[in-house]
Amino acid sequence: MKKFYGLAVFVLLLAPSMFAQEHYTEGPIWRVTLIRVKPTHMDDYLTMLRQSTKSVYEESKKQGSIIDYKVFLKETKNNPEDWDICIAVEYKNHAALDGLAAKGESIRDKILGGKAPAQQLTEKRAEVREIISSELLQEIFLK
């Protein structure tokens, strides 16, 4: 009888994942950050992205820390508090997130010339933008 209860509990715990796998397969992981740029600072922020962030992401791709990245410009606003720019970074899987902070700091320091310049850049960015949200998403492929 105990074996039956153990089997029943096992099946009940796995049931949600079994049903989910029937509908999709798991793809890569995405970190999606929604950013609101302060009025009159869009050009400043895009310049920062082009001059520093792009280089860091490109080096991260070369080293295999990330698969890809995308930058989206929102063309419609629902209200003045809405976001303006979305940055999406693609990772192979959840395991790719292990040790990511240390890898990112190493790449950042290599590209920007150390921790002090990176801190200055962070402070400049804070003056021209606000992070609305940052979400971790699992991409799925419907069967």
Instruction: Supply the helix-strand structural class.
Output: alpha+beta
At the first level of CATH, the class is Alpha Beta
- Stated plainly, the CATH topology is called Alpha-Beta Plaits
**Cα radius of gyration in angstroms:** 20 Å
Helix content: 40-55%
Question: SSE string, helix = H, strand = E?
Answer: HEHEEHHE
Give the overall shape.
globular
Write out the strand line-up for the largest beta sheet, numbering strands in chain order: 2-3-1-4
Q: In what range is the share of β-strand residues?
A: 25-35%
Largest sheet, in brief, is:
4 strands, antiparallel
Number of domains: 1
CATH architecture: 2-Layer Sandwich
Task: Count the beta strands.
Answer: 4
Figure out the total of helices: 4
- First and last CA, distance: 38 Å
Overall pLDDT score: 88
Descriptive report:
- This protein has four helices and four strands.
- It has a four-stranded antiparallel sheet with strand order 2-3-1-4.
- It is globular and about 65 Å long.
- With 143 residues, it is of the alpha+beta class.
- It has helices spanning 2-23, 42-63, 100-112, 115-128; strands at 24-37, 68-73, 85-91, 129-142.
- The protein has one domain: Alpha-Beta Plaits, CATH 3.30.70.
Summarize this, please?
The protein is of the alpha+beta class and 143 residues long. The chain has helices spanning 2-23, 42-63, 100-112, 115-128; strands at residues 24-37, 68-73, 85-91, 129-142.
Features of the shown structure:
alpha+beta; four-stranded antiparallel beta sheet; Alpha-Beta Plaits
Write the layout of secondary structure elements.
Layout: H1 2-23, E1 24-37, H2 42-63, E2 68-73, E3 85-91, H3 100-112, H4 115-128, E4 129-142
Antiparallel strand pairs: 1-3, 1-4, 2-3
